[in-house]
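User: Could you go from structure to sequence for me? I need the amino acid at each position, not a summary. Structure tokens:
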């Protein structure tokens, strides 16, 4: 009888801190994006109605930085873990660094900055070649293309799938998120009770009501290495 090795499901919720060591700004740290920009001017549907040129410029600047960024040790460590676990990444990040590192199961809760979509038919999504999406870039229906990201006040289409993935986790890992934004932060409420939870962040991130938490107070690059060591001891 062939021994079927069913790998444990390791679910990882990542936020902007995951990409900090790749040179991408976080949102709420000192020097973060929301210190430089007013969210309500660049990341809401009202902002888009009021000043689409400013919104497009905000995302063009971030996309340019992304094109110069590379995955860091944290991204690569999560790919390494795929050798021993069935790794599912649920990310709040709109960058593609998990994919570029080689992660194969990545669910974007807040969209993808290197994609655009029609403002007439939201199911029409396109890759953005290069760094810029500009006024006058139209979909084949003739409507202005917008960044394929979730703005504040918009629904999070992937949250149902993310809840299901979180509910199947044997191990749940939180990396580089302040857990400030819902529904993403609420995913912790959907994990099975008493499964091991690891939180990797240089700051202290409260996880109220969650049992069995191991805190790894390190940046993502080093923290994922520490996680790998802890998980290998459990093998
Ligand atoms: N490694 C790991 N974590 C880090 C690092 C690092 N090198 N540097 C900073 N952090 C941590 C911070 O301590 C903080 O807890 O990353 C977290 C970043 O938190 P936020 O800036 O709030 O980013 P995030 O939680 O991803 O924001 C969620 O809010 O603005 C919206 O849509 C946006 O997806 C974003 C969402």
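Assistant: Here is the amino acid at each position, in order:
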């Amino acid at each position: 009888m062939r021994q079927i090795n069913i790998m444990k499901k390791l679910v990882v919720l990542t936020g902007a801190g995951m990409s900090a060591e790749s040179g991408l700004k976080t949102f709420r740290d000192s020097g973060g994006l929301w210190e430089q920009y007013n969210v309500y001017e660049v990341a809401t549907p009202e902002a888009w109605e009021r000043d689409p040129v400013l919104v497009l410029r905000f995302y063009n600047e971030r996309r340019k930085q992304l094109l110069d960024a590379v995955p860091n040790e944290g991204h690569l460590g999560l790919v390494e873990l795929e050798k021993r676990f069935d790794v599912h990444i649920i990310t709040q990040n709109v960058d593609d660094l998990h994919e570029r590192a080689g992660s194969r199961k990545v669910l974007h809760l807040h969209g993808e900055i290197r994609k655009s979509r029609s403002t007439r038919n939201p199911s029409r999504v396109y890759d953005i070649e290069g760094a810029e999406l500009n006024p006058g870039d139209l979909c084949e229906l003739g409507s202005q293309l917008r960044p394929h990201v979730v703005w504040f006040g918009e629904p999070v289409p992937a949250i149902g799938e993310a809840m299901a993935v979180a509910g199947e986790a044997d191990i749940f890992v939180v990396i580089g998120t302040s857990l400030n934004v819902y529904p993403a932060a609420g995913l912790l409420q959907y994990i099975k009770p008493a499964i091991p939870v690891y939180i990797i962040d240089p700051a202290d991130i409260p996880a109220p009501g969650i049992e069995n938490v191991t805190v790894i107070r390190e940046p993502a690059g080093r923290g994922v290495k520490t996680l790998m060591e802890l998980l290998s001891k459990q093998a």
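One structural detail worth keeping in mind: Strands lie at 9-14, 86-91, 106-108, 111-118, 125-127, 145-149, 171-175, 197-200, 213-216.
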